[in-house]
Amino acid sequence: MEECGNNNGLPVIFLHGGPGAGCEKDHRRFFNPENYRIILFDQRGCGKSTPHAELNNNNMQLLIKDIESIREHLNINKWVVFGGSWGSTLAIAYSEKHPSKVMRLILRGIFLCRKKDIDWFYQGGASNIFPDYWEKFASVIPKKERNNMLAAYYKKLTSDDELMKMKAAKAWSTWEGRASCLQHNAKVVDQFSNSHVALSLARIECHYFMNNCFMEPNQLLKNVKLLKGINGIIVHGRYDVVCPIDQAFALHDVWPDSRLDIIAEAGHSAHEPGITKALVDATEETFFKLS
User: Fold this and answer.
1) What is the CATH number of domain 2-112+214-290?
2) What's the pTM value of the predicted model, to 2 decimals?
C-alpha cells in the first residue's frame, strides 16, 4: 500500500486491474494531490505485495477484507472508491458489501465477470477482431486443448516448468496488452509484457477466472440494489474489446444513481487519451461535489 497527496484531503482508494496487474506510478496522476488523500493498493500477489504471483489465500472475499483493513488502519470513515477493469469489479463488490463506507464510485472499463464476459476474451469473440494477436496467444496451447483455453493455460501457469510458465504468462499478458488500445500503444504492450507484471497478471487472472472470480453467477448486477444512494461515474470506451461496452450498459441500466460517459475513439486502457481525460474530470467533479 502507498499513500500520497494531501493527508487532510478527500480520501480515495485506487483499485488496479487484472486481477494481478499491480499499481503503476501514473495511477497517482488521476487525482489532484492538493485535493486528495490517495491510497494505492497492490492486491495480493502483485505489484509490491509478496509473495509475488501467489495463488493461495487469494480470492475476492479476502481482497474485500484487505480493503476494509486498510480503511480501518488509516482511520478513514468513508472514502471514494476508484477502479478500472477488474478494479471496477472489485470496487462494486466491495461497495455492495460495505455501502456505508463509500461516498462515491468512479469506475472505468466495466468488467462484470460473468461467464460470457470471460469467454468473450479467452475463448471466442475478441479473437475475431484481433486474429493475428489471437494466433500468437493460442500458439502456446496444443490445438487439441484449445476448446478450453482457460484450463489449458491454467495447467501451464501452475506448472513446475519455470520456462513454460513464463512463456505462457508472457503470451497471456501480451494478448491483453495488445487488445487494450484502439490504436497501438507500445508503452501499454511493454508494460503488459514485462516479466514481473506478466507472471502475476497471467497466473492470478487465470486463477480467478477458473473460479468464476469467487462470485455467484451475475452477483454484481443482482446485488446492485445495495448501491442505492451511492452516486457513480462510469467511464467506458466505445471500442473496448477487452470488456465490451454492453457490460457498462447493463450496470448503468440497473443502477439509477450512476452516470455513463461513453468515450468515442477509445478502447479499454486507462492510457487512452479520452479515457484519461474523462477520469481526471471525474475526480475533479467528485472533489468539488463532496468537499
Assistant:
1) 3.40.50.1820
2) 0.97
